[in-house]
C-alpha cells in the first residue's frame, strides 16, 4: 500500500512524503519514509507541456538528470532498478518486499513524480524506469571518455497493463502496481562462470562477450549489509559513481590484452575471501566476499569476521566522510584511470574494495570449489614459496581474455556496455528493426522465471 501527501509552500517548495508499508513472512514489517524536497527548478521541470512521446521522454530525461545532480547516489540505484525490473521482461513493477529488491524503494520513490508528470502519449512507467537506468549510466561517465546513451524505444507495458499475476512476500495474490510486481527469481551472488553465462543467455540472450560487458555495471554502486549481506560501503571499486572500466582493472593485470597470461593473473590485487557474519541483521544471510589483502593466498575467515558490526542505515552520508579522503587520494595515485600509465599491483595494501563470488568467477573458474554457503576451497593467487599452500589455486576462467580487453580499453567497454544495456532494457519487446528516432515496441513472449539453479539466496 502506498500513501501520498503533497504540500507546497508559497515559495514553491514542494515536499513529497512517500510511505511504503511492506509486510511479509520472511522480513518484519517495515515502514520506509523517503522525503524528496523539490525546489522551484525541479517543480518547473515536472510541469513541462508535452504533446508527443519524444517531448515526454526528453522532458523526463531532463528531470531525471536533475534528480541525479541533486543526489548522485541515484545514478547507480537507477541502473540497478533497470536490471531488476527487466529480469523476466521490463514492466515497471517490482516486489519491493522481496529480499532481493531491498533498497529499491528509494529510486522508485524518487522517480514517482517524474512518472506522474510524463506517463502520457504512450510513454509508460516501464519506459521511464528504463529511461532512468539509461540516464543513470550516461551521466556517470567520465567527461573525457564517453559514449551516447540514446533512448530510442517506448511502449513497454506495465504489469497492470499486461495483466500479470502479482504477489506479496507470502506469494499471496495482490493488485499489481510499481511496488507489487510479479514474483521473479534473481541470480545468486555465488554463481560460477558457467552458471553466470547460462543465466544471462537464458534471461536476455547474451553471449559471453555481452555477459562480461554487462557485469561492468558493478563499477557503479556499493554493497550494504542490510540489503544484500555484503559489506561494501565503499563499493566494488573506489570510484563508485563513475562509469568506466575500473572494475576490470581491479580483476585483471597488465596493460594490454596481449600481455602474458602470467601477467594477467599475477599483476593484480591479491583477492582473499572474508566471512561476513550477519547474525545481528534480521533475515540477512551470512556471506563470503573477496577483498584485496596483504600477502598471497585465499581465505582468511578468522578474527576479522565482522561479527557484531553496527547495522548501518540506508543513508549515503559516509560517501563524503573526511576521514576517507586522504586514503582515497593515495589510492588514486595507484590507479590507472582512462589513458594514464600502468597502476601499482597493490599486493601490500587494502583499498576497501570488495568482490562477490560471481565477480571473481569472471577471472577464476570456481566450478567444484564453491560450497553451498559461498565459501571457496581454492585461492585467487598462488602462494609464495615461503608460505605453505593450504588449498589449490582457482583455475583460470575462459572469460579472462575478454576481461583483459576491457581492462586495457575503456572506450571498447563503454561501447559494448551501452549496446548490451540497451538490449537488456528491451527485454520482452520487439521493435521490428525500427530505424526511426523513436520506435514503439510490442511485447513478445519471454521466460518469466529463470531456472531454479539461479534462485537468489
Automatic annotation (TrEMBL):
Q: What InterPro entries does this protein map onto?
A: Ccp1-like, Haem_peroxidase, Haem_peroxidase_sf
Q: Which Gene3D superfamilies match?
A: 1.10.520.10, Peroxidase, domain 2
Q: A GO term (biological process) for this protein? A: hydrogen peroxide catabolic process
Iron listed as a keyword? yes
Keywords attached to this Swiss-Prot or TrEMBL record, sorted alphabetically, are:
Heme, Iron, Metal-binding, Oxidoreductase, Peroxidase
Does the record bear Heme in its keywords? yes
| Pfam families (UniProt xref) | peroxidase
Q: Where is the composition biased (Basic and acidic residues)?
A: 301-312, 322-333
- All copies of the Plant heme peroxidase family profile domain together span 55-222
Here the segments flagged for biased composition (Basic residues) are: 334-343
Source organism, top-level taxon? Eukaryota
Using the UniProt annotation, give all residue ranges assigned to the region (Disordered): 289-350
List, in alphabetical order, the Gene Ontology terms for molecular function in this entry.
heme binding; metal ion binding; peroxidase activity
Which protein family is named in the record? Belongs to the peroxidase family.
Protein name as it appears in the record: Plant heme peroxidase family profile domain-containing protein
Q: Which organism is it from?
A: Cyclophora tenuis (Marine diatom)
